[in-house]
Every structure is written in C-alpha cells, then in structure tokens.
Specification:
Elements (H helix, E strand, L loop, with lengths): L5 E7 L2 E6 L5 E5 L31 H11 L16
Antiparallel strand pairs: 1-2, 2-3
Length: about 90
C-alpha cells in the first residue's frame, strides 16, 4: 500500500477533496479510501509550497491553462520569486 499525506479540503456527500501536502495537487476520494495517519507521520514538515503567477487569474479556464502550457512547455524559464506583498 502506498500512503500519501493529505489534508481534507472539503466533504461533499460521500466524497472528500484531499490536497496532497508534500507534492501539491488534489484528488477526490470516497470516504472508505481515506484514513487518519499515525502522529509520527506529521513530524516531517510539509514539503509543498503554494504559489501563484502574477497576472494570472486565480481560477483560470482550461483554455487559458492550455495556452500557458503551450508557451512554457520545454522552454527554459527564469523565475523571480517574491512574496505576495512583493518582497524578494
């Protein structure tokens, strides 16, 4: 069995939306597919970090996402990482 650390973001009827804290992304699961992890698994800090792209809407449509992917896929990118208040 493979186990991933996750945070339940929402519960709708019998489905749970789970965010994977160590590599990002989320997935929907049935209630019987999710279980509480033992406390020792929380000793390691969360490994993922939320981020956003300046000038991109919070919830972009698929065509915008596909367009962005077409611009950056297999391209060398230079990133300037700043905090949400603009500090580097």
């Amino acid at each position: 069995m493979i186990v991933f650390r996750g945070l339940v973001q929402s519960i709708k009827r019998d489905k749970l939306q789970v965010f994977f804290v160590d590599f990002g992304g989320s997935q929907e699961f049935g209630g019987k597919e999710v279980f509480e992890l033992p406390s020792f698994m929380f000793k390691t800090q969360v490994l993922s970090q939320p981020f956003g792209l300046s000038g991109i809407k919070d919830k972009c449509q698929w065509d915008e996402s596909d367009y962005f992917s077409s611009l950056v896929l297999n391209q060398r990118l230079i990133l300037n990482v700043t905090s949400s208040d603009g500090e580097q």
